[in-house]
Structure formats: C-alpha cells, structure tokens
Amino acid sequence: GPGQAEMYAGLQELGVANGEDLKETLTNCTEPLKAIEQFQTENGVLLPSLQYALPFLDLHGTPRLEFHQSVFDELREKLLERVSAIALEGKVEERYKKLEDLLEKSFSLVKMPSIQPVVMCVMKHLPKVPEKKLKLVMADKDLYKACAVEVKRQIWQDNQALFGDEVSPLLKQYILEKENILFSSDISFLQNFFSPSPKTRRQGEVVQKLTQMIGKNVKLYDMVLQFLRTLFLRTRNVHYCTLRAELLMSLHDLEISEICAVDPCHKFTWCLDACIREKFVDNKRARELQGFLDGVKKGQEQVLGDLSMILCDPFAINTLALSTIRHLQDLVGQDTLPRESPDLLLLLRMLSLGQGAWDMIDSQVFKEPKMEAELITRFLPLLMSFVVDDHTFTVDQKLPSEEKGPIPYPNTIPEAFTKFLQENRIACEIGLYYILHITKQRNKNAFLRLLPALVETFSDLAFSDIFLHLLTGNLTLLSDEFALEEFCTSLFDGFFLTACSRKENVHRHVLRLLLHLHHKVAPAKLESLQKALEPTKQSGEAVKELHNQLSEKLELRKPSPAEVTETPSMELPLPTVPTPASR
Predict the structure, then answer these.
(1) DSSP structure string for 221-280
(2) Read out DSSP for 363-428?
(3) What do the Gene Ontology cellular component annotations say (predicted)?
(4) For residue 439, which of 393, 470, 461, 416 has the smallest C-alpha distance?
(5) 187: number of CA atoms within 13 Å, CB side?
(6) CB count, 10 Å around CB of 244?
(7) What is the C-alpha to C-alpha distance for residues 54 and 66, in angstroms, rounded to an integer?
(8) CB–CB of 363/308 below 8 Å?
(9) Statement: the pTM of the whole predicted model exceeds 0.85
C-alpha cells in the first residue's frame, strides 16, 4: 500500500535499495534467479565469513528475513547505546555536532518502525532540535505521539495552544478529583479534605505529570501558571490556587533550581508549606512570612498577585483560620485584646491577602487590601465573648446550685455578629471556623445558638462545599443529638433546607449527611426530610442517585408487613419481632 512506499521512501535518498528497486530489476531482466542472487549479494550484510554461514542457515530452514531481523535488532540496540554515550562524551559542541549529523542522515527514515526509535533517541539527546525537524514532527500526529517528552518540550515552548491542549485535560481531572473528595460518601471528623499532608498531595497523578512535562523549562512553567491564573479568574475556583502551590513545591522537592530560583514566591511558599504541614503558624515562621511580605519592594508589587494566589489555596486558608481560632482562645486566657497581638494581626493580614486574590488579579491593582479596624476592635472581641460565655456556663454547671435553679445557656446572638458574617469576608471566614471549632468540641448549646447566623453569609460562604464538607464531618460527633426534634428542626429546617432548592451542592451535602446518620434520626422526622429532599426536574444525577440510596436505606428500616398486621380483637399480645439492624 501507499503506507509501505512512504515508509521506505527515505532509503533511496540514502542510496539503499528498496522493494521498488528489486521490482524494477526483476521486470527488466532475462534471468530472474541470477538477478535475485546478485541483489542479495549487493544488498546483504557485507561480512566475508557470512558467505558460507548463510547457506548453512538456509539448510536449517531459517528464513533470511529472520536472520536479517535479528542482526538488525542487535545493531539497533548497539546504536541506541552509542547515541546515549555520544550525548555524554567529549566537548559539548562536538557531541551535539555528531548527533546533529546523525539526525540529518537518519531523519528521512523516521517513518520506518524499525529505525524510528533511533531517530527519536537522537532527538531526545539534542538540547536544540533543528526547527525544520520539529515542524515535521509537529505536523505528523503519529510522530508527535512517539516523541520523547524532551522533544515535546521544545515543541511546546513555542506553541502555547498545543501545550494548552495537553495540559487542559489534566487540569479538568485535578478539579474533578478535588470535588470528589468534598462530596465523598465517607463522612468523618478524623479524615477530611484537609487530612493529607502537602508531601502526599504532591504525589498526586496530575501534579506529577505536570512536573514531568515542565522539566526544567521556565517558559513552560510560566505557561502553566498563566493557565492557572486565567482559569482562576474565569471560574473563581480556588483549587487552581492549590495546584499553583503544589506545582512549585513539587519542583522544589526535585531541587529544580532553574525554576525555583526565578519564582519570587518560592521561599514564601516553602515556609507556608511547613505551616500547612503542622496545621499551625508558629511564631518563628510567622516572623519569616512577615519578612517576605514586608520585603516586597517598590516596583515589584506584582509579586503580591502571586503571593495572594498562594494564600488563597484552601489549605493555606484552613491553616490561617485554625491558627486564628487558637490565638483567640489564648488571648482569652491571657486577658489580652486582639489589637495587642502582633501574631494575630499577621494572620489576619495573610487571610485578607488570600481572600483578596481574585479581586487583585482581576483588577491588576497590586496592593495589600486594607484591614477594617472594626474586624479587630469589634468582631474578634465578640468571638472572644462567646468563648467566655462557654467558660462561665461550664463553671456555673459545676457550682452547687442555690435556690436560683440552673442558669440557662445564652440563646440570643448579638446582631453585630450576624451583620459581620453578612458583610465582611474575613469575619465570615473566621466565624465559620469558630462554628466548626465548637462543633468539634461537641458543644451543642453554642452550635444551636450561632447556627441561625449562617443562613445569610457573605457570598453564601456557609453554603460553600469546603465548609459543608467540614461541618458534616464534625456533626458526626453530635450524632446522638439527631434523635431530638428540636436539634433536627434547627439544623435541617433552620439551615440546610433554606438553601437546598437554590443550591444543588447543599442538596447533595444534606443527603450525604442523612445517608450517614439516618439511623440516628427519629422516624417521623426522617420521613418528612425524605419528602423535603425529593429531587426536582432540575436536579442533577448526583442528587437523584443519593436520594435513591437514601430511599433504599429507609425501605430496609421499615417494619415488614408481618409486623404491622392488625392485632386480633381479643388483644392478644404479639410476640416482639426484633427490628432489622440499622444501616
């Protein structure tokens, strides 16, 4: 076929006879057998000793093709070894000159499957493959596919669109993996989205593949960062910020100084990475991070855009918020005001920078967001007063009660708290983390007191996937409360169901929670929830699937018809039938 002809076309250029030549010889000759013998002699392996060995192989029925093939394979192995050796020996210019000559000679045979590996190997070892050859490779799908990543990098660095096509499915896969973890059916306060260490996360398939594609190529690294910035702007999806930090730290792990040394965020990210590993910002690292922020020079403010993206990574926000809650508790014990704690102010400064990432990159105005004084003078003291309320209540419970009877837990929320959660992004983030904190402490009173403030929050943060993922995990610690009507009404009717119809993700999280804890919920409440959570026409597959699973679980819990038969009028007591085990 035409494929064959094309495959061997390169041989003629090199003065090597091919099938076409043999055909021509045979068509124009008088003695075909003599002609074949002559062709074999002229084009066979030129070794005197073979003259006698070949007829011997013929006697044993070994086809000449098989013999030539094995000689060829042997030679090709030797040649591949030799090419790799040339790439390492002698003066740099000389060895590359040798490889370039070799490429010049062999490239015309690149279509021959038997020779292709050699050509590919030569290109792989050339730091600069001639432009013309790269263009030929690029124009041919199969050749491009067969190329080593070292050659592809040379193609990609001048073809952003082609590189984008390669990277794009990986980025999609990355976001999907993150969402799958957030919606995972395993709900636990021990294992959650933030459990894996940074080192473990960097071993993920996508990060490893991108690291491999980039190699030491700064241009490709910059392109990936540009893709991530663009996608973050387009979607506001914060997982792109995580990937930006993971990629840099993955190159750091491999000690690729060619890239780490030129990324102005490297040392900051490295230090923050250590804090994320510990899930806490200690004093020593706080000073270091502050040094980087204070060290941003006039004319280099653009680095703030990159730093803000690193700080917008949910793993960074999680670490900063957890550290903030810990600091506030310490301040209560020390009787210190928030504005008197430089460490706390630094955490807030980094939180604002992270939360302001999207606006900064969008507006291209690179300056740190202004911190609102009220956050420090009014909101944080409010949170501290909640901590004090808890202490007071706990102490009161332990005191021998006089006639006054038990002191009720405070059940109203200061209006200022609700307003802060609605209007101030940083206050909202810290407020939500405080609520996660009291839930983890199984503090039901404090949880029910503050829950109404979550119905309306800044940019609906209380209905974001990360918060709901963490909240559902922590609520498993209060699982026994789900038997109580009052608790369920506050949690479901008062909070979750207010958003289910307008937010598909909330619908999914409630169903996840119920699938996990349905056996704790009172049957009547469960039934009304099952109805309230019916999928609508607009609902996606995930919601329908979860609701089906829930319905199946509840079917199994219903008593079987035998147990509900009418008791005969004589009121004979029915033997008690054990109910099927829950879950």
Answers:
(1) HHHHHHHHHHHHHHH--THHHHHHHHHHHHHHHTT-HHHHTT-TTHHHHHHHHHHHHHTS
(2) HT--SPPPPPHHIIIIIHHHHHHHHHHHHHHHHHHHSPP-TT-PPPPP----HHHHHHHHH-HHHH
(3) NELF complex
(4) 470
(5) 26
(6) 22
(7) 12
(8) no
(9) no
- How many C-beta atoms surround the C-beta of residue 462 within 10 A? 23
Give the three-state DSSP class for 450. helix
Closest residue by Cα to residue 509 from 469, 454, 539, 548: 469
Cβ-based neighbours of 443, under 8 Å, separated by 6 or more: 390
Helices (H), 89-140: 92-106, 116-124, 131-139
Name the 3-class secondary structure at 189.
coil
Distance CA 139, CA 145 (A): 11
Residue type, 357: A
Q: Are 45 and 71 in contact (CB under 8 A)?
A: yes
Listed in sequence order, the residues at least 6 apart from 191 whose beta carbon sits closer than 8 Å to its beta carbon are none
Exposed/middle/buried for residue 370 (C-beta within 10 Å: 0-12, 13-18, 19+) = exposed
Residue type (1 letter), 508: R
193 contacts 469 by C-beta, under 8 angstroms = yes
Which residue is listed with tokens 């093939």?
69
**What does the pLDDT profile of the chain (583 residues) look like in tens digits?**
555 555 555 556 655 556 666 677 667 767 767 766 665 666 655 555 555 666 666 666 666 666 666 666 666 677 667 766 666 676 767 776 777 777 777 777 677 777 777 777 777 887 888 888 788 878 888 888 888 899 899 989 998 999 999 999 999 999 999 999 999 999 998 899 999 999 999 999 999 999 999 999 999 999 999 999 999 999 999 999 999 999 999 999 999 999 999 999 999 999 999 999 999 999 999 999 999 999 998 888 999 999 999 999 999 999 999 999 999 999 998 988 999 999 999 999 999 999 999 999 999 999 999 989 999 999 999 999 999 998 888 888 787 766 666 778 888 999 999 999 999 999 999 999 999 999 999 999 999 999 999 999 999 999 999 999 999 999 999 999 999 999 999 999 999 999 999 999 999 999 999 999 999 999 999 999 999 999 999 999 999 999 999 999 988 877 666 555 554 455 555 555 555 554 4
554 contact partners, CB below 8 Å, separation of at least 6: 518, 526, 527, 530
The angle formed by the CA atoms of residues 240, 243 and 246, to the nearest 5 degrees, is 155
